[in-house]
Structure formats: structure tokens, C-alpha cells
Amino acid sequence: MIKKTIAILLLVTAMVANTAIIPAVAAPQNNVSQDAAKAAGKKADSSKTLDLKAKAAILIDAGTGNIMMEKNSHEKLPIASVTKVMSMLLIMEAIDSGKITYEDKVQVSDHSYNMGGSQVYLKPGEEFTVMEMLKAVAIHSANDAVVALAEKVSGSEEAFVDLMNQKAKELGMNDTNFLDCNGLTDEGHYSSANDVAIMSRELIEKHPKILEITTIWHDTFRNGSFSLDNTNKLINSYNGCNGLKTGFTTKAGYCLSASAKRNNMQIIAVVLGEPDMDTRFSESKKLLDYGFANYEISQISKSGDEMGSVEVRKGVGMSVKGVLKSDVSLLIQKGNKDQIKHSVKMMDFVEAPVKQGQKIGEVSFESNGKIVGKADVVAQAEIKKASFVRLFFRMVIGWFGIGRK
Questions:
Q1: Catalytic residue among 55, 84, 135, 233
Q2: Is the dihedral of CA 36, 41, 43, 46 positive or negative?
Q3: Fewer beta carbons below 10 Å: N end or C end of the chain?
Q4: 141 is catalytic
């Protein structure tokens, strides 16, 4: 009997040792990233495209990146000064990272002085603050000021343009190639409505302070001697408009990336290649009106809602509850909230230690058979790794069925 007991204990010990090499199941492979490129790249229903004169257009929700409407959204086109959206994005990144400050002085170089088109007539050797220059760019679309800022950030416009193209690749802007930081170049310098929406979304979602500048209707430059009037006329005429950037060259036509916010919903309308200024603004209004009339942001679930549990191996606890990591608000067509369904996919098991907030599953939200959003499910509590002795006796108890009724 003693030999039999020893044999059983040795067998149990071997089983415990073997459990140490069992790998944890990988997290679900569904991509739940909300990055600008993938979100803004979702295919919209082309039948909903409005009758637009623009060569290309798109309407997206800035929060989710979901497309409400599009027309030729991946066509590569010159975008003129809408290019400055990417320039402002990199400038704001430099400010928010501490590389430069709003109070830093920007010296005007001979190169920035030689810019044509819209400008604030900088002179070589003059100095203005980053904020003064940024206002000249965001409000007045000053080509000379944006070049001076590019030189401040990167040392030269060429180096800054390299950063612009690197950032475009990071964001998945596959229809874009920048040759300058202001959009004066037409040949070989291009983007698409989709890509403009991506960089516009990145700018206002990651650096919302820019909207405090893009909403300024009138300001002055050079101690009040030069007027800065906003080139985006929607700022003064469209309810909720808070940005973002106009553009025009003969080849590009009239372009605009327009952003507006109502009822906690921020949307972005992009039009490229419009025939004239009035049509640029009227068709942007049409897109924004469509978005606000037909869609809404609705809270579907709350942070902490329980979604199930997952087995924990080699832990002090045998399982851990899974809860939503954050509130879930979705862009939905008005009146369709009751049609939203959700499905939960949890990991088969996890190995201890488990950290509180560790991802252990995900929830997919569907409407009319299409996924309209996803959210992470995380561990509600920490589960520490059990000691060898504890695991041993747990397995012994399980082996002999101790405690069974």
C-alpha cells in the first residue's frame, strides 16, 4: 500500500512539473486597434455617395474613424495647402513632446522668405514665436511661416518633409507623397481624400489644442500691423465648425478638410478638386449636414461591465472575471441602437500571474451583420502565481477526489 501511495505521489509530481511547460493560449487575433489608418480605411456603402462636384470626397467620424460616405476616396490628387495638416501635426507633436515650446523664437531664413503664394511676408533675420507662426499657418495659411516652423523643428525643410513621409507611412497613408511642407508643389506631390481624413483625424484627436487656433476667425501678426483672416469661411458660418484647413492651386482646384462637432460627435469632411470656392464650402456643408442628420454617437456599454471569466492555470485563484476596459460608444445610424448586438470571445485560459487590467478577451459589436466596433475585455483583479506546494496539494486533492459528494 505504501509503495502504491509513493508511486501515485511521484506520478502527481511529474504531472505538476509538466504543467510548467504548457504555453498560454495567445490572445485572440482579431485586430481591435483604433488607429487612424485602419479605421479611416473601412469601406463605406458607395450607394450613399452624394451628388458631388468634387473630384474626391470623404466623410468620417473622428472618434472611431468610421466612414459615413465617400467618393473616389483613394484617388491620388494634388492637395495644395491642405498639406499643412501634416505640417501642423508634426509641429504639434514637437510642442507636446517638449522639443519646442509655444514661446520659442523662430528665426526667418532666406529659404522661408522666398516662399510664394499666401504668406505673411517674413523677412530674413526676423524672429517670431512658435505660437505667432503657428497662427499664421493655421489661420492665414502662410507658406513662409510653415517653412520657418519646419526649419525650427527639423533644421531644414528637406528633413521635415522626410518626417512628413515617415509619419504618413506610420498612419497607413498609402496614397500620399510629400515634396514640400506647404503644398506649393503640384507635380509628384499628392494625397487622397482618405489620407487627408487620416491625418486630419490624427491631428485633432491627438492634439486637440490645435482647434483653439483653427477656430480663430480674425487675429493679427507683427504687432497688429498685419491681419490674419481665417481662410476657412465655415468657421464663421457653420454651426460647430472648428477646423481645419483650406487649399488651392490651379492644378489642385479648391480643397478643404473641414471638421465640426455637435452633440459630442466630431466629424471630418474632405473635398478635393472642387471647381470654385463657393462649391468647396457648400459641398463640405452638405457632407457635414448628412453626417449630423443621419448618425449619432451612442454609449452601448460601460467600463467594468462583466463579460465572462477565464480559467487561470497555476494561480492562487482558479479563474478571473473579465470586464470591459473602457466605455463603449459607437457611431450608429439614428434609430438603430436597438439593433446593436455583441459577441464575446474570451481566451481559453491564462497562466498566472495575471495582472489587473490584462487583456483576456474582446467584444465585437455588430449592426446588420457588420462589425461596427470592438472593445478589449480585461482581468478584473490580479491573480498571483501559486506556490509549488499549493499546486501540488491542489492536484493531490483533485486526484483523490477529496471533497467530492
A1: 84
A2: positive
A3: C
A4: yes
- Choosing from 141, 192, 200, 257, which is the catalytic residue? 141
345 φ/ψ angles, rounded to the nearest 5 degrees? -125, 110
Alpha-carbon distance 382 to 358, whole Å? 9
Which domains can be identified in the chain, with CATH numbers? Answer: 2-30+302-399 (2.60.410.10), 40-295 (3.40.710.10)
Q: Give the active site residue among 71, 73, 81, 233.
A: 81
Grid cell of 174 as nine digits = 498609402
Omega before 23 within 30 of 0, i.e. cis:
no
CA end-to-end span of the chain, whole Å? 25
Q: What is the pLDDT of residue 35?
A: 41
Contact at 8 Å (CB) between 314 and 391? yes
Q: Residue 359: what pLDDT?
A: 96
Active site residue 84: yes
Give the three cell numbers for residue 173: 497613408
Per-residue pLDDT reduced to its tens digit, 197-215 = 999 999 999 999 999 999 9
CA atoms of 252 and 235, how far apart (whole Å): 22
Which segments in the chain show pLDDT lower than 70?
Answer: 1-49, 388-405
Nearest-angstrom CA–CA distance, 49 and 52: 8
Q: What is the pLDDT of residues 231-249, one digit of tens each?
A: 999 999 999 999 999 999 9
